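Collaboration report, partner site 2.

Our partner group contributed sequences for two proteins of shared interest, and the home lab folded both. The records are reproduced in the order in which they were received, starting with the first partner submission.
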Amino acid sequence: MHVQISVKGHLALRWQEWFGGLQIAHLEDGTSLLSGTLPDQAALYGVLWQLCDQGIALLAFTSSH
């Protein structure tokens, strides 16, 4: 499943491993975009849990198969 997750703030690029290998891009509006492919819904829940656990505000989410 391909996902794109927009979050508030610029995340450290070293966190890519924490987020299932999703690529982190810093956008000019002060947000970060995590994008890439996750193997299944369980992996997606893991990424979302990591964001929540770190107190990172989720702004938008899209996925496609």
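Second partner submission, folded after the first:
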Amino acid sequence: MIQIGYVLSGLIAAAILFLGARFWSAPAAASAAFGIAGSPPPSTGLTAWLSVKGTRDIASGLFVILLMTNGPPRLLGEFMLVASLIAFGDMATVLRSGGSRALAFGMHGLTGLVIVATGACLILGAP
């Protein structure tokens, strides 16, 4: 179980780092793919806010890597459970904005469930 948790954690960290970098390098495309209905056209202010989100995503991915390399599996698992709130919050934001239900549940909700399952693998498999 621990190995599965670590593999999933690594994949999640890589995905979060990719998404964070995308909000820096292609903010309009990243914003459109997020799923919020009625997103404004790119502007200096919006691009700045999207860079803030990208920075936080990159830091979140690095936190996962830090815990994978230096922390016990249980701590990584607990972190993942807490981090799942980000994905579920994103899902709620997309739904609240009138965005795509399929995207809200299919991307953000499913991501949250995978993160919960990853945390459970690490916690249940920890000595």
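Feedback sent to the partner group on the second submission included the following. The chain has one domain: 2-34+43-125. Helices lie at 2-25, 27-34, 44-70, 73-96, 101-125.
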